[in-house]
Specification:
The chain has 200 residues and is of the alpha/beta class. It has helices spanning 12-21, 32-37, 49-59, 61-70, 80-84, 187-198; strands at residues 2-5, 26-29, 40-43, 75-78, 86-89, 101-107, 117-122, 124-125, 140-145, 147-151, 157-163, 165-173, 176-179. The longest helix has 12 residues, at 187-198.
Length: 200
Amino acid sequence: MIAIIDYGAGNLKSVHKALEYLGQDAVITSDPDVIMSADKAILPGVGAFGDAMGELTASGLDKTVMDYIARGKPLLGICLGLQLLFEESEETPGVKGLGYFKGKIVKIKSAELKIPQMGWNNLKFKRDCKLFDGIKDGEFVYFVHSYYASPENVEDSVASVTYGDELDIAVHKNNVYATQFHPEKSGTAGLKILENFANM
């Protein structure tokens, strides 16, 4: 069973529908016991970093997420879910993230391009990662974001896109995977990514 973690900031239903389409047993839950008993977990999210961390901390789900990761089970962060796994964000200075990945979340800096980046962009892979098995270099996926990850450890980054600068948009360390783009909104390629995660 896959637990979709509900902390009050999410694209929960679209993730759930995509997993249902793939025939996966998935549940939207804020119950720590249900999350901890799941085979895999997804940390989704849309919105502001500070507000989301406030919700996670107030509910105690920040500890649940880190305890879950410590058990070695696969966890996938999506969009804001990726950002929360880092130490901090320029969006909300002074608010600490979960800190699983070393580094911070930074704002896209471009005078010419529209921010947020909203729409399709093509992936450039930096290294092999099970999450992207069967996905070709250059595949298009769907984004809605103004911030992106700047990992301290370059080996944590597995994929980037070019939007003005080269932006790191997918990370992996041990049993934790995260994407800045929305696989649940990325058509066939996105479904394949979710299927890869579900089959881990």
